[in-house]
Structures are given as structure tokens and as C-alpha cells.
Amino acid sequence: MALTVLVTKLAEHSRRAAHVAAGAGVSPPTGIKIGALTLFAVLGIPQAITFSIPFALASIFSACSGAGQGLSLGVLNLAIVFPQMFVSVTSGPWDDLFGGGNLPAFVVGAVAAAASAILAFTLLPSPPAEVKIEVTGGGH
Predict the structure, then answer these.
(1) Which of 57, 67, 74, 138 would disulfide-bridge 62, Cβ 3.0–4.6 Å?
(2) Is the separation of the CB atoms in 107 and 114 below 8 Å?
(3) Contact (Cβ atoms closer than 8 angstroms) between residue 84 and residue 73
(4) Which of 87, 103, 107, 85 is nearest to 95 (CA)?
């Protein structure tokens, strides 16, 4: 989160300085571009895990309990999509409320992620002991 804020602030500062000097919008310096791409490339690794683990766990739990995997995965998908739609609708007015920029939405996202992590560790059940988790190499 701190690096995202840093990249955002550096890009805004660069944009203001370039706008004053050139009189028009100019692309950010190469260092800011490299920093942003590096940050998001590193963040992509845990994001890939975040995208795949919930679906794997939902399949395991539904298979062990005898529930339908399609229904379980559909409900999980809705639980992911509805908050995304809510953020899409509300982040623009939220940013305008605080003077523009994307930093307010990042802060709200960070707080929501921290709250979700706490709730996940405290409320979600552990996988059943009889489930064997096998590690395989790559692929889907």
C-alpha cells in the first residue's frame, strides 16, 4: 500500500511539474513507469493466489459436504462480483469527494482488505482433516 501511495504521489508531482513546464500533459518519467510496472508485477504473484485459492477451497468443501460444486462456485463468484460492481459505481464520486485522484479509493481498498483478512482468519473454517492436498506442477 505504501509503495502504491508513493508511486501515485511521484506521478502526480511529475505531472504537475511537466504541465507547468510544457503547458500540456506529458508522460511520466521513465523511473516512475519502471517503479509502477515493478510494483504491479510483484503484486501480481499474491493476486494470482488470491484469484485461485478461494475457488479451490470452495470445490474442496463442496465436494466433502456433498453440495453441488457448480452452485458453490456460482455463489462464490457472485460474492466476488457484487463488491467489484459496488466499487466501480462508488469510487468515482468517492474520489471527487476528496478532490480527485485515485488515492482515496486505494485507502478504502486497503482498509477493506485488512478487515477481510481479519474476518477470514477468525470466521472461516479450516479444511477437513481427511482432505488430502496434493501439490502438482503447473497447469489448470
Answers:
(1) 67
(2) no
(3) no
(4) 103
